[in-house]
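Our platform keeps sequence and structure together, in a single record for each protein. Such a record has a labelled line for the sequence and another for the backbone structure tokens. Nothing more is needed to write down the fold, since each code stands for a local backbone conformation. For reference, a complete record is included directly beneath this paragraph:
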Amino acid sequence: MKIARLLAAVALLVTAMGAHAQEPAAYPSRAVTIVVPFSAGGATDLSARMIATLLSRQLGQPFVVENRAGAGGMIGMGAVARAQADGYTLGWGGNSPMSVTPHLTRSPPYDPRTAFAPVSLAAISSWTLTSRPDLAAKDFEGLVKLAKASPGKVSIASSGNGSAPHLLAEMLKQSAGIDLLHVPYKGEIDGVNAQLGRQVDLMFTSTSAATPQLKAGKLKGYAVTTPKRESALPDYPTMAELGKPELTFEIFFGLVAPAGTPKAVVDRLAAAMKTAVADANYRDTMAKAGVSATGSSPEEFAALLKRHNERWLDVIKRNNISIE
């Protein structure tokens, strides 16, 4: 009897050890890479680096930011889409590579609607319709009148063909019934400098880039594209307030994983992101940059991505816009 009991106990121990050996290691058990699909510098990169530090403190492993710029963000996000779905390669998704650029090419390296597992938003900002400081129009209504009086003469810059500012410019033309001259530049800073140098009239500028110029009086502003007024620019109306709700679009940054990443990993990251986004220093730093620290659940982030993809794809198709 004693021998039988002993054998049974040993069997239970072996079974328990085997089950334990099959359990996955606690996540994370090693360093995690966050791919930022843009060059270092700017609000997108800053937010990723601050969040990486906060995640490292919470989860006990290094979260390392890796910048992989190029092709409107598709190089970096393409690497994330192809990465092993284990939570150790993540992406810092934003508007262009997550809802715009892949729809502008016939053979994109990934489908932003299916290639990723959304984890959490980290920040929301807006585009601000800005102009060179000496443009005659004092407000949005005056701007529309000016453009209608000189069809094709008022110019609007963008950060390149097919960029979000370009698509917003096309939407503005349709919404207001005006004809604007599109002038594409290599990047946003080039368009801002062109406005400062009075070489171009208008641009949809990211609020983070526009805020210091507007406060210094070096640019003129007309409206922001967020649903509610921007805390950094509270005196500027929203496009919805001006009767143009169709021009409501956020700039967003957020954490995504490759599609197929285990739900337990996504949930652990989402819980850590909730705490990170609530960090007082992070929120204050983002506010000073003209960005609102904004978290979300994976489901809420997925819904935002769906909405952005549907709207931008519609604009691209209706205007027959392509970068090829």
